[in-house]
Amino acid sequence: MALLARDADSRELELLLKQDPVLSFHLLKLVNSAAFAVNTQITSYAQAIAVLGRRQLQRWLQLLLYARAAADGAPNLLLPLAALRAGQLEILCKADGGERDDQDLAFMTGAFSLLDRLLGMPMAAILADLQLPAHVEAALLWREGARTAPGDG
What letters, b where the CB count within 10 A reaches 16 and e where it falls short, cover 89-124? Predict the structure, then answer.
């Protein structure tokens, strides 16, 4: 996600994917699924990145954080909630006239809103290395934002 955030070139992304077989498997499975309806089978990281697109790749990675099963093999129940929050914040941002980049940040905020529970760490510690915009950090740390009503959060 950090590479995507700094707009790294596709070669850097490919090198990272080569180091994580599980991530690579899920990526190729995704882009070869019926949802993408490509006529040829995707067999390289460069093709997968091109088909999915950087924006969707970043969103997919944000939600994939939650997709790993628990130690006992049970599915992570935070995934549907994080996906719902991400989608809702994106829709609210769009309805409020937010630009595409603002909508992406809103999606990220929703997707990251449960990272403290997922990782068992304080949100401040998680955010320390991410260098997110101040309003995103405020939303994640203190549940503050444009849509927060008095008494919410």
Answer: bbebbeeeebeeebbbbbbbbbbbbbbbebeeeebe
How far, in Å, CA of 79 to CA of 65, rounded?
8
> In this predicted model, what pLDDT tens digit does every residue of 40-80 receive, in sequence order?
777 778 888 888 888 888 888 888 777 765 666 677 788 88
Q: Residue 10's closest CA among 60, 59, 51, 67?
A: 51
Burial label for 146, CB within 10 Å (0-12, 13-18, 19+), is: exposed
- Distance between CA atoms of 93 and 146, rounded to whole angstroms? 9
CA trace torsion 17, 20, 22, 27 (10° rounding): -10
Both tokens of 126, joined, read 């998680």
In angstroms, rounded to a whole number, what is the distance separating the alpha carbons of residues 66 and 85? 13
Please state the pTM of the whole predicted model: 0.68
> How far is residue 38 from each of residues 48, 51, 124, measured CA to CA in Å?
11, 8, 41
- How close are the terminal C-alpha atoms of the chain, in Å? 27
Structure tokens at 76: 């992570």
Hey, what are 94's tokens?
């769009």
The greatest distance separating any two alpha carbons of the chain, rounded to the nearest whole angstrom, comes to 53
